[in-house]
Amino acid sequence: MKVIDARNRNIQDHAEALFLLTRDRDDVVTLTPGATITAVTDPTVTPDTVFIFDPLTANAAAELYAGTMYVLPVNRFLGSFIITHLNAGTTDRTFRWLAAGD
Questions:
Q1: Displacement of CA 102 from its chain's centroid (Å)
Q2: Are 99 and 49 in contact (CB under 8 A)?
């Protein structure tokens, strides 16, 4: 999150911070085939963000509901997060994700 000092009078800084707070905090991610992690970058993510995943394909649903994908608290950073998942060769494990909290 962008932090603005109370003495900052730059309208552009305030507009950018407001945009980041009010924009939809969701996107689409496809898990990396042949790997056990997938990194996602988003400027609104913080270590306190909670993630909800909506599978968009059958392989994504199988991954999610098998309980083999998750985001550990230590993998939530300022501006990014890492999804841990199975090492599978499927290329269509695609999810819409939603970020909540901060």
A1: 12
A2: yes
**Spatial CA neighbour of 42 closest among 60, 26, 53, 30:** 26
pTM above 0.85, yes or no: no
DSSP state letter for 73: G
For 82, phi and psi rounded to 5 degrees?
Answer: -120, 125
CA distance 83 to 81: 7
Q: What is the pLDDT along the chain (102 residues), one digit of tens a residue?
A: 556 666 767 777 767 766 666 555 789 999 999 999 999 999 888 898 889 999 999 999 999 999 999 999 999 999 999 999 999 999 999 999 998 876
